[in-house]
């Protein structure tokens, strides 16, 4: 990739299984990647070291996406070096419980991370991105937002809101050369999913009879972040092995 086409990318939740795969793929494609973490700072730094060793461009950044002030300060420091043109809103958490037994804290923690986090990170980056007349925003949703899932009313609500925000923001910025899409993974082989889905369950739920790979999700994100995807916007694309 030539220097003129290098884009600066920020991946929130970049220290997790899917986030790390996205960061590595974007770096492999030649972008300068900011690997974000909140509590997983050591993991983010290790991922950055691996990317630098492979010849990529990367930096680790740490802030809590639910803290508007801290997020604003961190983004101002990043923007001092230029606009972010690829944003992957990947930060999200589970805190599962059946709804009659769900606490207010469980509800708000999940909503705050996905929905408030989306606003806190995306809104300050918009005008610098708009001025470049080129941008890619990819939001990590979930198949749960499309199908529902017992014990995840909070998570489904959070990701459903993200899907709706994706479509509306896409309409606002379409004429500015900016696309906004969401990726909704199904069962993906990450440390988080291994404790939830055994092989028998995966075989029953997934027509392809296997869990997806983080690298497969990263490949879809990389396409949506590319010039080739310039006419794809306002879409929620599920990558799920045929579950829906």
Descriptive account of the structure:
With 244 residues, the protein is of the alpha/beta class. The chain has one domain (3-239): Rossmann fold (3-Layer(aba) Sandwich). The chain contains nine helices and seven strands. It has helices at 17-28, 41-53, 68-79, 104-132, 144-147, 153-173, 191-194, 199-205, 214-224; strands at residues 8-11, 32-37, 57-62, 86-89, 135-140, 178-185, 236-239. Strands 3-2-1-4-5-6-7 form a seven-stranded parallel sheet, with helices on both faces. Helix 1 crosses helix 9. The chain is globular.
Which helices and strands occur, and which strands form pairs?
Layout (H helix, E strand, L loop, with lengths): L7 E4 L5 H12 L3 E6 L3 H13 L3 E6 L5 H12 L6 E4 L14 H29 L2 E6 L3 H4 L5 H21 L4 E8 L5 H4 L4 H7 L8 H11 L11 E4 L5
Which key features would you list for this structure?
16% strand, 9 helices, Rossmann fold, alpha/beta, 244 residues, 7-stranded parallel sheet, 7 strands
Summarize the structure.
The protein has 244 residues and is α/β, with parallel strands linked by helices.
Main β sheet profile: 7 strands, parallel
Percent of residues in helices comes to 40-55%
Q: Please state the overall shape, judged from the principal axes of the Cα atoms.
A: globular
Give the number of helices: 9
Please report the distance between the alpha carbons of the first and last residues. 36 Å
Instruction: Output the CATH homologous superfamily.
Output: NAD(P)-binding Rossmann-like Domain
Domain unit count = 1
Mean pLDDT: 95
Total strand count, please? 7
| Rg calc | 17 Å
């Amino acid at each position: 990739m030539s220097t003129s086409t290098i884009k600066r990318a920020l991946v929130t939740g970049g220290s997790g299984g899917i986030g790390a795969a996205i960061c590595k793929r974007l770096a492999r494609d030649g972008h300068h990647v900011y690997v974000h973490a909140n509590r997983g700072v050591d993991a983010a730094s290790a991922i950055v070291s691996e990317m630098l060793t492979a010849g990529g461009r990367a930096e680790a950044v740490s802030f809590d996406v639910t803290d508007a002030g801290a997020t604003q300060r961190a983004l101002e420091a990043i923007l001092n070096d230029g606009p972010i043109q690829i944003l992957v809103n990947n930060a999200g958490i589970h805190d599962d419980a059946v709804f009659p037994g769900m606490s207010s804290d469980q509800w708000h923690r999940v909503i705050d991370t996905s929905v408030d986090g989306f606003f806190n990170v995306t809104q300050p980056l918009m005008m610098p991105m708009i001025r470049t007349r080129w941008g890619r925003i990819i939001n990590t949703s979930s198949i749960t937002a499309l199908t529902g899932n017992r014990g995840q009313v909070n998570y489904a609500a959070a990701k459903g809101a993200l899907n709706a925000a994706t479509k509306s923001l896409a309409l606002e910025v379409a004429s500015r050369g900016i696309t906004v899409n969401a990726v909704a993974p199904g069962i993906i082989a990450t440390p988080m999913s291994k404790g939830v889905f055994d092989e028998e369950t995966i075989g029953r739920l997934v027509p392809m009879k296997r869990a997806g790979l983080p690298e497969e999700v990263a490949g879809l994100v990389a396409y949506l972040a590319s010039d080739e995807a310039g006419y794809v916007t306002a879409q929620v694309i599920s990558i799920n092995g045929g579950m829906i």
